[in-house]
Design a protein that fits this description.
437 residues, Urease, subunit C, domain 1, TIM Barrel, 2 domains, nine-stranded mixed sheet, 11 helices, 27% helix, binds N-carbamoyl-L-aspartate, binds zinc ion
């Protein structure tokens, strides 16, 4: 048999250990993993000596904006950032303008993304103020329902106990997970200083919010996913309530590696929700990810804003930072500096996110899975926002030393990105929308 492509003699992780293998790709799937000299015939090949052959990252929390917020990011630049960052699948959040609360907006986003994307793009929908207005026709094209208790997509909505229960019921009826931003509604009064801002988005509030969703989750036997856990106490609460895969959680690289005290907070460079916490939280989140498994996966919460919105004084600045181009270098640096095992890396960056959303053909580099692959190498470098493909170039990781670099990104067997350049046009590789298998 002649396969489409063979990735030859790369460094491959087998049972948690580095070994040399070749990966064959046929019809957008992984055809097999071979020892040197045993590879099948091929039409095309890539010499992978010295390169790690890894599953592409699956980032289940990104904001690709577009529509009326294309000045912040659009599907083209957002997915270029993904491909350049070794991320082969992204799942786009519904807090766009307009927000995804109806089928028309979802369809608009899907058709834009279909035309412009370089990687696989999945979607979430929000839940309309009047739950009966939820259009069940959206279900096949979304991977979950997402709610924001502190800042509802429809300003009329209050996330009372009853509202949370209704949303949970809807997710159960739809057969998809309910995802939520763990925070509670704050007083209408704008914070006047950083202390007030932090108090409005405290760990206490994060914990309270998670508890109220867990209560509803237990009542209705729902699938619940906690977005961007930022506090040690939240990780502890999730750990206490773990029940296989019915309660899952993610953490961002910035909540793992940065703490609030490291920044002057004059402007919005390090402003995001939830805010950066303490070094103790950093440490306990890493433990939750790798020791107790209270947290399942890493997600970037790629949240691009315009330059002027981030350069404003802290209280006026927009919350959110770009993340698609920093996750892989940061996480692989943990591996190369021996703070993270290969097994944990593969789980938290690729296989767990696929499992959480039921993407059964993704997240693992093995025969029969989708050929979503990144080739990366050990290379010392520095994170520079000016090098990002994302429109958002202001990052709190600016100047940080990293030891890894994605070189080639393959989506469904198609080489999309190689050595700093794009090999295909937009809309060619990748599935839009990603649907549950
Ligand atoms: C996100 C955004 O800008 O859309 N901002 C953020 O600070 N994380 C919203 C969110 O993820 O809560
Ligand atoms: Zn060989
Ligand atoms: Zn959020
Ligand atoms: Zn977000």
């Amino acid at each position: 048999m002649t396969v489409d492509m063979v990735l030859k003699d790369g460094i491959f992780i087998e049972n948690g250990r580095e070994t040399v293998r070749s990966v064959a790709i046929e019809a957008s799937k992984i055809e097999g993993v071979y020892r040197h000299g045993e590879e099948p015939q091929y039409l095309d090949s890539i010499d992978c000596r010295g390169l790690y052959i890894l599953p592409g990252l699956i980032d289940i929390h990104v904001h690709l904006r577009d529509l009326k917020e294309s000045d912040k990011e659009d599907y083209e630049t957002g997915t270029m950032a993904a491909a350049a960052g070794g991320v082969t699948t992204v799942v786009d959040m519904p807090n766009s303008n307009p927000p995804v609360l109806d089928k028309r907006t979802l369809d608009d986003k899907i058709s834009r993304a279909h035309e412009l994307s370089y990687v696989n793009v999945g979607f979430y929908a929000g839940i309309p103020h009047n739950i009966d207005d939820f259009d069940v026709q959206m279900i096949r094209n979304i991977l979950g329902l997402k709610v924001y208790p502190h800042s509802p997509l429809d300003k009329r909505t209050n996330y009372t106990r009853d509202r949370i229960r209704e949303c949970t019921k809807l997710a159960v009826a739809s057969g998809i997970p309910l995802l939520f931003h763990p925070d509670i509604a704050t007083q209408k009064k704008e914070p006047e200083n950083i202390e007030e801002f932090l108090l409005a988005h405290s760990c206490e509030n994060e914990v309270k919010s998670v508890q109220s969703f867990i209560d509803a989750k237990i009542e209705y036997e729902a699938r619940l996913h906690v977005c961007h856990v930022s506090c040690a106490a939240t990780a502890r609460l999730i750990h206490k309530n773990r029940a296989e895969d019915t309660l899952t959680a993610e953490v961002t690289p910035h909540h793992l590696f940065l703490s609030g005290g490291d920044f002057p907070h004059d402007d919005g460079v390090a402003k995001m929700l939830p805010p950066l916490r303490s070094p103790y939280d950093n440490k306990m989140l890493m433990e939750a990810l790798c020791k107790t498994w209270a947290i399942d996966c890493v997600a970037s919460d790629h949240a691009p804003h315009e330059k002027w919105e981030k350069a404003a004084p802290f209280l006026k600045a927009a919350s959110g930072i770009p993340g698609l181009e920093t996750t892989l270098p940061l996480m692989l640096t943990e591996v190369f500096e021996k703070r993270l095992t290969w097994i944990d890396y593969l789980r938290v960056c690729s296989s767990a996110p696929a499992r959480i959303l039921g993407l059964e053909t993704k997240g693992i580099l093995s025969k029969g899975y989708d050929a979503d692959i990144v080739l990366a190498r050990i290379q010392e470098g520095t994170i520079r926002g000016s090098n990002f493909f994302s429109k958002a170039k202001i990052t709190p990781f600016e100047g940080r030393r990293v030891l890894a670099r994605p070189i080639t990104t393959i989506v469904g067997g198609v080489v999309v990105f190689d050595n700093g350049e794009f090999f295909t046009g937009p809309g060619i590789a990748g599935r839009v929308p990603v649907q549950k298998s």
